[in-house]
Amino acid sequence: MKWFGVVGWKGSGKTTLVVKLLPELNRRGLIVSTLKHAHHSFDIDEPGRDSYEHRAAGATEVMVSSAHRWALMHENQDGSEAALDELVAKMKPVDLLLIEGFKREAFDKLEVHRKVVGKPLLAPDDPNIIAVAADHPMLDFDRPQLDINDVVGIADFIIDWCGLLQLSQSHPQSTPGRA
After folding, report:
1. pLDDT for position 174
2. Confidence of residue 179 (pLDDT cuts 50, 70, 90)
3. What's 60's DSSP letter?
4. For tag attachment on the chain, is the N or C end more exposed, with fewer CB atoms within 10 Å?
């Protein structure tokens, strides 16, 4: 399974880009999953739901399942965040795992940068950022620069970088029911 990251400052458009990339990559026949990092505490459950009550009562893991989806919630009881490798190991193997966030981890990433956010580029301090998708040109920058609005071009870049060209060409259209 190939991994590829999309990183950037809050408000830079990471999620927007991932959401636009997914149908383009699927259209090319790739099976893609995502892994999203959250900097804050989050909950996908709510008080009053049975699964919430199970966790509140002390369950380390709670799995919820229906005909449409299943979810596994795991409590980090010692307060430490799971390592990226551990999380990826829990994912079902697919052609491509798009990882949003985890900007400090060492794996191949595309930085999303918007001038309006007012933050510096991450790339100069991170050799794992192999390209930048931006809404402005960057002078004196030694890595590929992509137009943040060129989803097809960014998909081409990711497919090429990850060595998925052969796979995407052998399945030019996605089939119903594929990720």
Report:
1. 40
2. very low
3. S
4. N
Q: Would you place residue 52 in the very low, low, confident or very high pLDDT band (cuts 50, 70, 90)? A: confident
Are the C-beta atoms of 28 and 159 separated by less than 8 Å?
yes
Element (H, E) at 143: none
Name the token pair of 142: 């030694």
Q: Which domains does the chain have, with CATH numbers?
A: 2-42+83-170 (3.40.50.300)
What is the CB neighbour count within 10 angstroms for residue 41?
A: 5
- Counting Cα atoms < 13 Å in the Cβ hemisphere of 127 gives 0
* Residues 19/100, Cβ–Cβ less than 8 Å: no
Q: Which residue has the tokens 């927007």?
A: 16
**Residue 167, token pair as written in the block:** 């796979």
Burial of 109 (0-12, 13-18, 19+ CB in 10 A): buried
